[in-house]
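Hi V.,

Quick status before I head out on leave. The structure for the redesign project is tokenized and pasted below; the design run finished overnight.
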């Protein structure tokens, strides 16, 4: 019996002869294994909820969320961080990804980088981590030294820590205030954690940032009302969202967005409440950017 810490390195008994299968049979095998992932994620939702509440608390007070990882895990963190500014209208500094080996590791393997605890610490020092931030260490194997080094340093700063791994009783969990262990079992290809473990990581990171942004007022109903109209596609999306929320026609929606300098939240509030732009801005700020709370606030006056 192999140690639990080596779960991601164990051979999968369901794929021992995958190299003898037809193309369709290979796909069928991979797909069957992939179906394990959402089930595994569903089991860690209570732990994930606690971690998200911590992250929300930090971000709502002006702190940052820092992902730290190596290889696929590091790339997943950087991907999730990079998607938040255009989707939710947050500054790129709010959620950041740090990867072992630096930016070159996004496209090239940097041998040995993940084996250094000191590099994990040093990379967090470079971004001036402090106790007002929160660090999320991503290590599907549960034992990456680079991530452990980062989590150790984060703990010393008084910074709350979250860890994501895909093995039970993982080493990284020992250095985390909010350990998340999503057990997806051995990979289709032994040790290839870009597969099931990578998929689980992507699902978890999606849920972390999406849920935090919902709690921060970036969503109205299920619409992205903090979208930044930096190109034609996003301008059309802002127009469509304004029409869906208010029921006004294309011409009025376009004029209103221009009047509000394409601030979708203010445009929505102005149309729904009849207040001036200045009144909407002031009340929205009082309600920390929450459109629904702002509307209710106006109704009480």
């Amino acid at each position: 019996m192999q140690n639990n810490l080596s779960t991601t390195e164990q051979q999968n008994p369901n794929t021992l002869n995958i190299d003898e299968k037809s193309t369709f049979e290979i796909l069928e095998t991979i797909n069957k294994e992939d179906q394990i992932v959402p089930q595994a994620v569903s089991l860690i939702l209570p732990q994930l909820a606690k971690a998200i509440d911590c992250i929300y608390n930090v971000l709502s007070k002006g702190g940052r969320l820092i992902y730290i990882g190596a290889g696929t895990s590091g790339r997943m963190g950087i991907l999730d961080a990079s998607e938040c500014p255009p989707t939710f209208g947050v500054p790129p500094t709010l959620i950041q990804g740090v990867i072992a080996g630096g930016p070159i590791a996004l496209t090239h393997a940097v041998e040995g980088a993940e084996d250094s605890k000191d590099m994990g610490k040093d990379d967090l020092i470079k971004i001036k981590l402090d106790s007002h931030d929160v660090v999320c260490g991503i290590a599907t194997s549960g034992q990456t030294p680079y991530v452990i080094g980062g989590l150790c340093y984060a703990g010393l700063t008084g910074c709350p820590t979250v860890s994501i791994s895909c093995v039970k009783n993982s080493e990284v969990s020992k250095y985390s205030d909010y350990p998340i262990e999503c057990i997806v079992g051995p990979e289709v290809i032994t040790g290839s954690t870009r597969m099931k473990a990578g998929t689980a990581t992507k699902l978890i990171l999606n849920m972390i940032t999406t849920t935090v942004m919902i709690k921060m007022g970036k969503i109205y109903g299920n619409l992205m009302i903090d979208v930044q109209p930096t190109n034609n596609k996003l301008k059309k999306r802002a127009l469509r969202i304004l029409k869906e929320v208010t029921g006004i026609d294309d011409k009025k929606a376009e004029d209103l967005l221009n009047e509000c300098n394409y601030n979708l939240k203010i445009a929505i509030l102005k149309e729904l409440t009849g207040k001036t732009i200045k009144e909407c801005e002031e009340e929205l700020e009082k309600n920390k950017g929450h459109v629904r709370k702002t509307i209710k606030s106006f109704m009480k006056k």
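Above is the designed sequence. Residues 4-215 form a domain with the Rossmann fold fold (CATH 3.40.50.10490).

G. will cover questions while I'm gone.

Best,
W.
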